[in-house]
Amino acid sequence: MLRPSKAGYVLLCLLTTLQVADAIKYLTDFTSVAGRWSWTSCPSGYDQDRKDLNDNAGGKYVYFCSKYATYSGPGSPARVTDITYASSSSCTPSCPSGYTRQGTDLNKGASGDCIYICIK
Contact, 30 vs 102, CB < 8 A? Predict the structure, then answer.
């Protein structure tokens, strides 16, 4: 669960695999985007969760973006195995060892600590 801001808590559940017809899809990337408008969109190839993470908190429109791939044997993209977050009042948080910081500040333009997604 991410820390609260004026928008409240965000509960993040990790779904790493999906069964789509006869194919198994798995999560290969997870990030966030922020923009001035509600139609801010994720990069091409990403699925967008249309819930604004800063809803009722002011600030930018912030959305989660996820990317899935179908396993096709050796050479397939790496799978995301865990997601956590890092926060800091100085907006320079470090992710735990073995994790990579992704996306934008989830509190972009709103009050509260800067919060970033970290993936492994």
Answer: yes
Distance of CA 33 to the CA centre of its chain: 8
Phi, psi of 82 (to 5 degrees): -160, 150
Q: What is the mean pLDDT of residues 100-104?
A: 93
pTM of the model: 0.78
Contacts of 68 (CB under 8 A, 6+ apart): 18, 25, 26, 27, 28, 47
Distance CA 101, CA 51 (A): 21
Q: Give the DSSP letter of residue 59.
A: S
CA-to-CA dists, residue 81 to 15, 35, 62, angstroms: 10, 28, 23
Token pair 């791939």: residue = 69
